[in-house]
Design goal:
Elements lengths: L1 E5 L6 H8 L9 E5 L3 H17 L5 E5 L2 H5 L4 E4 L5 H14 L10 H24 L4 E4 L4 H11 L5 E3 L3 H13 L6 E3 L2 E3 L2 E4 L2 E3 L2 E2 L1 H6 L1 H7 L1 H4 L3 H7 L2 E2 L4 H4 L1 H11 L3 H22 L2 H17 L3 H5 L23 H12 L3 E8 L12 E9 L2 E4 L7 H23 L2 H10 L6 H14 L9 H7 L1
Parallel strand pairs: 1-2, 1-4, 2-3, 4-5, 5-6
Antiparallel strand pairs: 7-10, 8-9, 9-12, 10-11, 13-14, 14-15
Length: about 475
């Protein structure tokens, strides 16, 4: 079986490759990395080949900048591309913050700008996938994952598409650690949109543990930092556990204040860490010392991973794990790559599993359109995915889901058509954007700073269309 990785020069690719070694039951024969940045691809490709050789993996690893060669013969295609690289992310964040709005790569205007750049590229890739590998499943991890899943299901040229995100897996890991049971033995029910979801029940041995968890939320927040972002009274009032990204909606003013006080955005930190690292890795690879490249990579990525969401939630950069109470566990937690690999196992080898995916609603959540992409638990097997009905959801959640979903539909349409008015409408209705005037100012600046990546908004093209 061949697995292809789009965006194979991304910084997390070696982590994905390392994760494959934990799943020999995948029976992979080939893994191909694709990227159009040949210098980065050389670095990440050689680093990945080193890992494959060190672990004496049963599959061969190749890398190429030819998209057709990359996807030909693939049964599964994993996508994690980044149009404009990290430097564009910095612009996404800074433009938004300049106007007093949260700057984050998936939530709010930052995710909007990233979607405008990325959606047209991914749609073009689906044309090639449908032509060259029509039976392949496309597993999209590319951010903003929910918007990309909406775009590919609405406008894409390939039918077998699943949007994925590891946030829910992180919630299950945290709950398993707190309750002292493997994540495979608990079911954290879930509903919402990508990076906008809630857990209304936690089932272990047929019993709902959520009331007990809510009562002891202070203890949960001490054992897992993703729950420490929220006041216990807020969570008990809501009566559900939050996806960590709800912090940006429940504490919007504080998040903006914290980022500004830190004098550095997350994107700027990643550029500061990542660019020198890439240069060092290139030198190590060029000199043939790939072992030194791997050691350097691991150390830098650990620093990057350990500081995620630290500045937004506290105003300073620190290790988010340092204050967690230590709990000894005797089972393995699910990693970054786990969700994608479990989907592959379920479809390829009919391993029946319930996994949280981004898929078309089709009545799963009452009150949303059938073609609205939602993030819900699905039964996955050799026949594909089958969403588990959610039905009516509490008003406290729907009050956020509906306006964000309206924004997502408009943002996707704008990314595909290049229509200015639709793009402006999308930002105007987003709950994190305070007014039309702010929305217009942000949009105009994005169209200017990202001009090279947004040809669909070219004025001459629009005049021809009109």
């Amino acid at each position: 079986m061949k697995l292809t990785v789009l965006g194979g020069a991304g910084m997390r690719t070696p982590q994905l490759i390392q994760g494959l070694f934990k799943h020999p039951d995948l029976h992979l024969s080939e893994v191909t990395l694709f990227d159009n940045d040949e210098n980065r691809l050389l670095v990440m490709g050689e680093l990945s080949k080193y890992l494959v050789e060190q672990h004496q993996a049963s599959f061969k690893l190749t890398f190429t900048s030819d998209i057709r060669e990359a996807v030909r013969g693939a049964e599964f295609i994993y996508s994690a591309i980044r149009v404009g690289q990290e430097e564009s992310r910095v612009l996404d964040e800074r433009v938004s913050l300049k106007h007093g709005v949260i700057g984050q790569e998936t939530t709010g205007p930052g995710g909007f700008a990233m979607a405008l750049r990325t959606i047209p590229v991914m749609i073009e890739y689906t044309k090639i996938i449908h032509e060259v590998a029509p039976q392949a499943w496309l597993l999209n991890f590319t951010n903003p994952s929910g918007l990309l899943a909406q775009a590919l299901n609405t406008y894409g040229h390939h039918d077998k598409v699943i949007g994925i995100c590891d946030a829910h897996a992180g919630i299950k890991n945290a709950l398993g650690k707190f309750l002292g049971v493997p994540h495979t033995r608990l079911q954290a029910t879930y509903f919402g949109l990508n990076h906008l979801g809630w857990v209304p029940s936690v089932i272990v041995g047929g019993e709902d543990k959520l009331p007990e968890i809510l009562e002891n939320y202070e203890s949960l927040s001490r054992t897992s930092h993703i729950f420490s972002f929220f006041d216990p009274d807020l969570i008990r009032n809501i009566g559900m556990l939050p996806n960590e990204y709800l912090y940006y909606f429940y504490y919007t003013d504080q998040a903006v204040k914290n980022i500004n006080e830190s004098n550095e955005t997350r994107g700027e930190q990643i550029v500061k860490l990542g660019r020198p690292l890439l240069e060092r890795l290139y030198d190590h690879v060029k000199s043939g010392d790939v072992a030194k490249a791997w050691a350097d990579y691991k150390q830098t990525m650990e620093e990057r991973n350990n500081t995620y969401m630290s500045r937004e939630t506290s105003g300073n950069v620190h290790n988010v794990y340092e204050k967690e109470e230590k709990i000894e566990i005797t089972y393995e937690e699910e990693g970054y790559e786990g969700l994608a690999l479990n989907i592959i196992k379920s479809i390829k080898y009919n391993k029946q599993q319930v996994l949280t995916l981004n898929i078309p609603n089709n009545g799963t959540i009452a009150g949303l359109h059938h073609d609205d992409v939602v993030e819900v638990p699905c039964l996955v097997n050799e026949n594909g995915y089958f969403p588990l009905s959610v039905g009516e959801v509490p008003d406290v959640a729907m009050s956020l889901i509906k306006p964000v979903k309206t924004y997502e539909r408009l943002a996707v349409e704008a990314a595909v058509t290049g229509d200015y008015d639709t793009a402006l409408k999308a930002l105007t209705v987003h709950p994190l954007v305070p007014s039309y005037t702010v929305a217009k100012a942000i949009l105009d600046e994005y169209l200017e700073v990202h001009k090279q990546y947004l040809p669909q908004f070219n004025s001459e093209k629009q005049e021809l269309i009109n």
